[in-house]
Amino acid sequence: MSILKRVRVRQHVNPLSSKYQQSVTFPEWKSVYANLDLPLHLDIGCGRGRFLWQVAQMESNWNFLGLEIREPLVIEANSWRDESGLTNLHYLFCNVNISLPGLLASLPEGILKRASILFPDPWFKNRHKRRRVVQPELVAELAKYMAVGGEVFLHSDVLEVAEEMRDRFSENSFFQCQYADDWLSENLLPVCSERERSTLSRNEPVYRTVFVRGNG
After folding, report:
1. Out of 9, 91, 182, 199, which could bridge 66 as a Cys pair, Cβ 3.0 to 4.6 Å?
2. What is the CATH number of the domain that holds 151?
3. Structural domain contains residue 162
């Protein structure tokens, strides 16, 4: 399959649907990554995975893992990975709010050193807000398994969502916001996501912040 081809999938998937309430089976990580000792960047809600696909080629001294609830996108992204011959990149189909505890426990201790949550589904309606990915339980799991000094990058083009994500991480004593008084004017990650490029091309704002895992 050509890297340029795209599958068509639904834009929204309800993570509370019964079909997404089972944890997935995790791979044998030593068979996934050529060097499992490298630090890991976890991208939650990776979509088509192009952001990680680009960064993995730029940072061969890191491993990358993208999590996505829409399985066709994961299959497509892993095909891109295979065509590129990348051995430091993998995509996994899962509902992160169900599978994250088991996933992180299955990884070698201390390798999670960077995470990103970029433009998550905003779920605007009040009755749908519990579908948003950044819940206190997710933050607690990241705090439990992330190495001290690890970074979490949060980006959104919806101010309410950005503020809610920032509040959820601020409420956890293990995370310290590095830019508590304002939003970052520039992207500190190696590349911009597709959504960020699209947002900036329309001269619309992007709300960014970074949290660091402290000692609690």
Report:
1. 91
2. 3.40.50.150
3. yes
